[in-house]
């Protein structure tokens, strides 16, 4: 009977960062029962217990429900650059997609569903372990099987090894696609030897790693690769209950000029329906429309279905989980409680500053920190900017990025910036009217840019005291 925000605070005090919407397991319940002096009792329909679950896995849905049904596997393609990840995905999509049915127009929503021998496989469209791991860093894991593409003429390369580590760290089974077998220089035995050295021993050498010789270009053995995916999926016993309350994860999100905030979500359990009210970490919404990869409007989406949804209050981050809530008020309250918490956390940061004031503070002999809130049009720019900024930190001045995001500048961004005395950097995005008003009221400096170098230059100049006050 305590407010969720209370429980979240109590957990933070115990060193556990767990959002109110997260599913929790025994260890969290134990901590809560201690804090609130409650007795724990397990009922028969309690969720399957995850043994030794690290904190992060809280965000992976715990299997629940009594009507567990097999579900389609979610697959990510990884591997070294130029080894054929994109080509492989294209070939698989072109030969197996069901999207063409009913005159659908294939559109990019971040995931594609292919059909093979009466079964479905869902491929996440962004290949590579960067996307995979940035989702995981946010605590979301939605990949069931990793396809490791290794070019037979090139062999194991640095990013091949990285991909292996990332998949292993996530506990995701790996299927190796030894690619470019059509090339005269293809040497699959060398690839197998190299992979064995890294702990992936092929089945025909007595190990347990499935390796398929393919050519993404000619399509050779792609069927066999799909068969192996279905085989592994069967061994993994991937299941979900379509009848429980829906939940899942955001895999892509953007601000669309016409449609507003749109997100592609992957339903992991339950069935999401048009009109449902869903709550994410930074956004909520009543689902106005759901569209699949063939551009078809759906009324409902069951487990392992990726759908683009419209009707969100804000652009969420990939990796955020969603749950269904019963009432709009519940969603709204939860978001404003979260904003409040963000502000409280941000409040403990250093005092207000503009870029122009930075230099004079430095002259005073203090070691100032520039707090920045960064919003960009695409996630790639966020990462590029933050990467460059991190390299600029010196002994004299620190840089603290309080928040990053994709999409236009909203009122809640400005509130957060105000509370944390952050300068707002908008890269290829603009503040909406409410955000503009709020910025004036709160005296928050918004700086808009179109070129990454300009951002870097301005901040460098400020750090060196070169920037003429202009805002
Ligand atoms: P990615 O960087 O891993 O996504 O690699 P791409 O799919 O972009 O492929 C890199 C290059 O390798 C492209 O020029 C492809 O046409 C080529 N390629 C990919 N798969 C094959 C294959 O099976 N055989 C041959 N000969 N070339 C391939």
TrEMBL record:
It is found in: Cytoplasm. It comes from the Bacteria. Its main location: cytoplasm. Belongs to the TRAFAC class translation factor GTPase superfamily. Classic translation factor GTPase family. IF-2 subfamily. GO terms for molecular function: GTP binding; GTPase activity; translation initiation factor activity. GO terms for cellular component: cytosol. It comes from Dethiosulfovibrio salsuginis. One of the essential components for the initiation of protein synthesis. Protects formylmethionyl-tRNA from spontaneous hydrolysis and promotes its binding to the 30S ribosomal subunits. Also involved in the hydrolysis of GTP during the formation of the 70S ribosomal complex. GTP binds at residues 79-86, 125-129, 179-182. The gene is infB. This is Translation initiation factor IF-2. The lineage of its organism: Bacteria, Thermotogati, Synergistota, Synergistia, Synergistales. Residues 73-221 are annotated as: G-domain. Keywords: Cytoplasm, GTP-binding, Initiation factor, Nucleotide-binding, Protein biosynthesis. Residues 70-239 form the Tr-type G domain.
């Amino acid at each position: 009977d305590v407010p969720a925000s209370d429980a979240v605070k109590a957990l933070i005090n115990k060193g556990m960062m767990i959002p109110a919407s997260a599913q929790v397991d025994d260890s969290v319940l134990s901590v809560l029962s201690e804090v609130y002096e409650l007795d724990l009792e397990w009922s028969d329909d309690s969720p399957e217990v995850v043994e030794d679950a690290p904190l992060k896995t809280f965000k992976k849905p715990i299997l629940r429900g009594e009507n567990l049904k097999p579900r389609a596997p979610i697959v990510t393609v990884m591997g070294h650059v130029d080894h054929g990840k994109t080509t492989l995905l294209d070939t698989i999509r072109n030969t197996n997609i069901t999207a063409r049915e009913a005159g659908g127009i294939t559109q990019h929503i971040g995931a594609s569903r292919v059909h093979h021998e009466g079964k479905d496989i869902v491929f996440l469209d962004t290949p590579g372990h960067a996307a995979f791991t940035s989702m995981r860093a946010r605590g979301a894991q939605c990949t069931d099987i990793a396809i490791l593409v290794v070019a037979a003429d090139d062999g194991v390369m640095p990013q091949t090894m990285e991909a292996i580590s990332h998949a292993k760290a996530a506990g995701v089974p790996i299927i190796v696609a030894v690619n470019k077998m059509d090339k005269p220089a293809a040497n699959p035995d060398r690839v197998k030897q190299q992979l064995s050295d890294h702990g992936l021993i092929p089945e025909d050498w007595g190990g347990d790693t499935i390796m398929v010789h393919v050519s993404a270009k000619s399509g050779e053995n792609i069927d066999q690769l799909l068969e192996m995916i279905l085989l592994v999926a069967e061994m993994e016993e991937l299941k979900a209950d379509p009848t429980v309350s829906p939940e899942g994860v955001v895999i892509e999100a953007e601000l669309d000029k016409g449609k507003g905030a749109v997100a592609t979500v992957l339903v992991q359990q339950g069935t999401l329906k048009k009109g449902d009210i869903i709550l994410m970490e930074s956004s909520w919404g009543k689902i106005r429309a759901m569209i699949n990869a063939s551009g078809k409007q759906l009324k409902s989406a069951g487990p392992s279905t990726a759908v683009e949804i419209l009707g969100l209050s804000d652009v969420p981050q990939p990796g955020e989980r969603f749950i269904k809530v019963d009432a709009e008020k519940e969603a709204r309250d939860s978001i404003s409680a979260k904003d409040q918490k963000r502000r409280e956390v941000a409040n403990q940061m250093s005092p207000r500053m503009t870029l122009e004031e930075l230099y004079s503070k430095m002259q005073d002999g203090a070691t100032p920190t520039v707090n920045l809130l960064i919003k960009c049009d695409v996630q790639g720019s966020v990462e590029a900017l933050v990467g460059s900024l991190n390299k600029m930190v010196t002994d004299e001045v620190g840089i603290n990025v309080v928040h990053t995001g994709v999409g236009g500048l909203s009122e809640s961004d400005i509130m957060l910036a105000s509370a944390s005395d952050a300068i707002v950097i908008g890269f290829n995005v603009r503040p909406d009217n409410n955000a503009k008003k709020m910025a004036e009221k709160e005296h928050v400096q918004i700086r808009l840019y179109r070129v990454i170098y300009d951002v870097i230059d301005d901040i460098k100049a400020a750090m060196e005291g070169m920037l003429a006050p202009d805002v």
